[in-house]
Design a protein that fits this description.
It is a single chain. The chain is α/β, with parallel strands linked by helices and 320 residues long. The chain folds into 2 domains: 130 residues, 3-Layer(aba) Sandwich (Rossmann fold), CATH 3.40.50.720; 181 residues, NAD(P)-binding Rossmann-like Domain (Rossmann fold, 3-Layer(aba) Sandwich). Helix content is 37%, strand content 16%. Helix 6 links the parallel strand 6 and strand 7. The radius of gyration is 22 Å and the shape is elongated.
Length: 320
């Protein structure tokens, strides 16, 4: 019997059932705090399967004591918390959850777009401060119907965004490193363009890409300065994908530019603590709905089972 350990105590019954039906025992991390790096290393040595979150860092120094195949299931889309040496190891297979929070993040993207377009938070603040009259708004609300939306990235989230953008009759531009892999989006009216062209011509820009060496600082200060002065810019990806300081500076310089961020605040806590009518920030909560978390556990368990079945098929082929 294979042994699995979930770092999260919130793992749901359905995920546990999926694993147990495949003769996998399931333990849950018993510590009051998240495991230290040494404790993670020991868990990886003891267990065949380890289910982790983005807070758990799997580093190359953990490979030294591994003598049997392991599966790491990460409850995330991104893999930037796992060293590339681990991803390339012959002893470790990593599975992620690319679909579970797609709906939740897409909804959050449009919540940010509509919030800033309709001046909802600013208007609410006026009411709270006894200025409940539309004449006090810094600028009039805007519609998003018919506005050009530029999507950076063409993955599962962007595909969901396309479906909703079409409801709002929005022309859609898209930048991706591999446009030839996404011919299905062309059928939905998406036009693939270069990054600079997208930034210059979009009324709304949304970033949905994983953090890699290629996407780190993809939206640099130079790129930020290509944006329209009345654009809306949304980022729900990793913080490091876009230059936060440059975006805030652009918002401060252009009062009709609206910025919506759902990121890990980290070093930008002081910068983002200042109230601005044209900046709204949430602390990376887009994919953390209750429904998304439940789906993530199930998807992780299902992908672990698929990986085990793939291993078995490979062994059967080798044995023929």
């Amino acid at each position: 019997m294979l042994k699995a350990c979930s770092i999260s105590k919130s793992i749901n019954r359905r995920a546990i059932k999926i694993l147990r039906e495949k003769d996998i025992s399931v333990d849950v991390w018993s510590g009051e705090k998240s495991p230290t790096q040494d404790e993670l290393k020991e868990l990886l040595r003891i267990y065949d399967i380890l289910m982790i979150g983005v807070k758990e860092k799997i580093t190359k120094d953990m490979l030294g004591d591994i003598r049997s195949p392991k599966i790491i299931g990460t409850l995330s889309i991104g893999l930037d918390h796992i060293d590339k040496e681990c991803l390339q190891s012959d002893f470790i297979n990593v599975v992620n959850c690319p679909s579970a929070n797609t709906t939740s993040v897409t909804e959050h993207i449009f919540a940010l777009i509509l919030d800033v377009s309709k001046r909802i938070q600013e208007a609410n603040e006026l009411v709270i401060n006894g200025k409940g009259n539309k004449s006090f708004l810094s600028s009039k609300p805007n519609d998003i119907t018919g506005k050009t939306i530029g999507l950076i990235g063409a993955g599962n989230i962007s595909k969901k965004v396309v479906n909703i953008a079409n409801i709002f009759q929005m022309p859609i531009l898209c930048y991706t490193a591999h446009p030839d892999n996404h011919s299905d989006l062309i059928e939905k009216g998406v036009q693939f363009v270069g990054l600079n062209e997208l930034l210059k011509n979009s009324d709304i820009v949304n970033v949905s890409v994983p953090l890699t060496e290629q996407t780190r600082n993809l939206i640099s200060r130079e790129k930020v300065n290509l944006l329209k002065e009345k654009a809306i810019f949304i980022n729900t990806s990793r913080t490091e994908v876009a230059d936060v300081q440059a975006l805030v500076d652009f918002a401060d310089k252009n009062p009709n530019f609206y910025l919506g961020l759902d990121i890990d605040i980290g070093e930008y806590s002081e910068l983002l603590a200042k109230k601005r009518n044209n900046v709204i920030v949430t602390p990376h909560i887009a994919g953390c709905t209750d429904e998304a978390i439940q789906r993530t556990f199930v998807e992780c368990a299902e992908n672990i089972v698929k990986e085990l079945e793939k291993r078995k098929e490979e062994k059967d082929i080798e044995g023929r």
